[in-house]
Amino acid sequence: MADSTPRKFRTVHFQQAKDEGRRFAMLTCYDAITAGLFDQSGIEMLLIGDSVGNTVLGHATTLPVTLDDIITFSQAVVRGTERAFVVADLPFGSYEVSPAQAVESGVRLVKESGISAVKIEGGSEYTDHVRALVSAGVAVIGHIGFTPQSENVLGGYRIQGRDDDAAAAMVEDALALQEAGAFAILMEMVPAAVARRVDEALRVPTIGIGAGSDTTGQVLVWQDMLGLRQGKMARFVKQYAQLHTVVTDAVSTYHREVLEGSFPSEEHGY
């Protein structure tokens, strides 16, 4: 964002970025040390995503993640953060039943962890939930396009909004969430042209992950972005480092030195 960064990022700063044609960066985060590193690096927004289920807890999907899980990891991220705006996902099963359930979960998450906003998956069917959250004092980011919590309904990880009707419906969903009070809309796995159409229709900022370059912000899962996780990466992932190699090389060296007796040496003793 601008060179004169605020002492603490708030919703108004992201709206200013949209209004002034500037951009901001978002990364997932799940612990205090990493939060501190990302914060010091200038990342404006941190997300405790339910992707913690895949990246940290070892689940095959995000679906088993609980509200208690998100609260625990959110507390850690908030402790490690000074400047970045911290957002957390409302996990599967914590908001769908009713607006009242969404408010109960959202208020608890904010109150117990100290985050600044929640993210909720879904389109216009959740406008009452978003409106109730905002009325209760909980800032909300909407999440449309591919929504991982609905992968069983969507038929797996599939690009959303490919045809004209689906694209039009996505614009309608985004507008409905904006009018319900969401201060930003995240789009996942959406054709760039459709994401651009959504962004142009909205007055609030957009955040993209696999949604082209015309959104106000961009987000990636940090273990993917820094090459810690191995295997096939989604097309939208750019790896800026290969931490898997760095870590495995270092650990292998430590292991070898312990076995051969060269660690600890005299300099590492008392």
Class per helix and strand makeup: alpha/beta
- Note the total helix count: 11
Give the mean pLDDT.
Answer: 95
Q: Helix amount, in percent?
A: 40-55%
Shape: globular
What's a concise summary of this model?
Homodecamer; pentamer of dimers. The protein is of the alpha/beta class.
Q: Which features does this protein show?
A:
alpha/beta, 270 residues, 42% helix, 11 helices, 14% strand
Write the layout of secondary structure elements.
Elements (H helix, E strand, L loop, with lengths): L10 H10 L3 E5 L3 H9 L4 E4 L3 H4 L11 H13 L5 E5 L9 H15 L3 E5 L5 H9 L4 E6 L5 H4 L9 H17 L3 E5 L3 H10 L4 E4 L7 E4 L1 H4 L17 H18 L10
Parallel strand pairs: 1-2, 1-8, 2-3, 3-4, 4-5, 5-6, 6-7, 7-8
Helix pairs in contact: 2-4, 4-5, 5-6, 6-8, 8-9
Notes on the protein architecture:
InterPro entries: Pantoate_hydroxy_MeTrfase (IPR003700), Pyrv/PenolPyrv_kinase-like_dom (IPR015813), Pyrv_kinase-like_dom_sf (IPR040442). Mg(2+) binds at residues 50, 89, 121. The active site is at residue 188. The chain contains eleven helices and eight strands. With 270 residues, it is an alpha/beta fold. The protein has an eight-stranded parallel barrel with strand order 1-2-3-4-5-6-7-8, surrounded by seven helices. α6 links the parallel β4 and β5. The longest helix has 18 residues, at 243-260. The chain starts with 10 loop residues before the first helix and ends in a 10-residue tail after the last helix. The model has no long low-confidence stretch (mean pLDDT 95).
